[in-house]
Amino acid sequence: MPIQHCIVHDIDKAGSDQSASLRPAATELATSPLNEDLLSRFHDAYHAKTKAWGHFLDGGELEAGSTPAFTQALGAYLDGGSDFVAFTRDVAERLLPLVDAHLSVSGHLLCVDYQHGETHYLSLALLHQREGFGVTESLQIVPAAQLNLARMSLGLRINLTQWRDGTASRHYLSWIHDRGGKKLSEDLATLLGATEGIDATGETRTLLKAFSDYVEKEDMAEEQSREKTEALIDYANEQASRGEPITLEELSEMLDEQQPKAFYDHIRNADYGLSPEIPPDKRTLRQFRRFTGRAGGMSISFDSHLLGSSIEYDESQDRLIIKQVPKQLKEQLKQRKE
């Protein structure tokens, strides 16, 4: 990921009752392997976070004649009207009220303009420090402050290529949306002049439901079902780790090379309302797993999210209780009774 520009500004906040202040950097950081490594580790930490996905408000969503200050400043920087130092200092100053309102500790604002493949990105994140320990060349233990990437609570990434090209994508912008930081996320979106364009959690959940329906409709054997489940989860997690969306057509091709359009056609024919590209939600993916078992002429297979709702396991009696019998099975049972 070649870095075009990189800078770190310091946002100081002595305590919850103190106003945040900015100590801006005068110059950019020189490109170095260390900075490249930091960007890579930041990437991993950022994509492990729960995020909101969206886009900048467009003409139809804005009041007549208004343009959000952030997009105005970003456009001026990309067009050469301001340099990276001035642009990021302006952004840092605009973030001070958010830090005052939602955070009680200081942080370092990391700003990186970089390429990943043929795509141009801008990432911003407020990184906090934690106290650690180091060992000197004389083997003495010394205190050593470290950036705590896992604690990141304010961060965003913009796919500048998609934004500038004016593509139909409604999720070229993402920002951290942790469960405990909902108001911070909302205020950051307001500052950016952005709105959510897709519900990543809901879309991921619907995709997994569509996959479960597909497996049931195709009446797949246990081993085949497990293989396809693993293929889907591996692909989705790989896309999540890269910060890229799940592409339905690509996923369909991976699930069945002999019938590459089968799963895609199933989704479209059943009208699940899914977007062609879905930003994967890692938390939802972690919860997805198929429980399977076969014994004495009986085969059972169901998704883990059904346990506790449609299906209950009574460990003391060693029995499964199915509350919602599948329609096809219900009809067969009715016919057998007749």
From TrEMBL:
InterPro entries: Nucleoid_associated_NdpA (IPR007358). It comes from the Bacteria. It is found in: Cytoplasm, Nucleoid. Keywords: Cytoplasm. The keyword Cytoplasm applies. The keyword Cytoplasm applies. Pfam families: NA37 (PF04245). Its main location: cytoplasm. PANTHER family: NUCLEOID-ASSOCIATED PROTEIN YEJK, PTHR38772. Belongs to the YejK family. This is Nucleoid-associated protein YejK. It comes from Billgrantia bachuensis. The lineage of its organism: Bacteria, Pseudomonadati, Pseudomonadota, Gammaproteobacteria, Oceanospirillales.
